[in-house]
């Protein structure tokens, strides 16, 4: 299940057991249980940095992701997390869900997130 929460410039994703905080140009993923226990002091499972130097001239952004705890997160899971998180910024329909959550909370429906991710609605 994916839950979106946003406070000011920080975006929080809860993806089953993972938590991500975004403050451009970084994304930090950690375990949900670790985050609940330690908050912002939780150890990262996956870190990523966005290199935007070529974004305006070449329409290109490089991303580097590093799995910190291989015992907690596989490369395949890390790839899925990065791709899913990015998809909310690269896909107009998914981005509208972020905007709706942040700016029009009363209109936000969690089932729309599940549908966007082709996940079963529970």
Automatic annotation (TrEMBL):
Cellular compartments annotated: Mitochondrion
Signal peptide: none
Top-level taxon of origin: Eukaryota
Keyword vocabulary terms for this entry: Mitochondrion, Transit peptide
InterPro entries, per the entry: ATP11 (IPR010591)
Family under the similarity heading: Belongs to the ATP11 family.
PANTHER family: ATP SYNTHASE MITOCHONDRIAL F1 COMPLEX ASSEMBLY FACTOR 1, CHAPERONE ATP11
The protein's name in its UniProt record: ATP synthase mitochondrial F1 complex assembly factor 1
The organism's taxonomic lineage, starting at the top: Eukaryota, Viridiplantae, Streptophyta, Embryophyta, Tracheophyta
């Amino acid at each position: 299940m994916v839950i979106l929460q946003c406070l000011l410039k920080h975006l929080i994703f809860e993806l089953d057991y993972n938590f991500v905080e975004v403050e451009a140009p970084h994304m930090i993923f950690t375990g949900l249980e670790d985050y609940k226990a330690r908050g912002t002091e939780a150890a990262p499972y996956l870190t990523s940095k966005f290199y935007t130097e070529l974004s305006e001239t070449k329409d290109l952004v490089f991303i580097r992701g590093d799995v910190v705890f291989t015992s907690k997160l596989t490369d395949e899971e890390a790839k899925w997390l990065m791709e899913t998180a990015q998809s909310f910024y690269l896909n107009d329909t998914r981005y509208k869900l972020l905007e709706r959550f942040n700016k029009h909370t009363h209109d936000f429906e969690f089932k729309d997130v599940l549908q966007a991710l082709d996940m079963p609605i529970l």
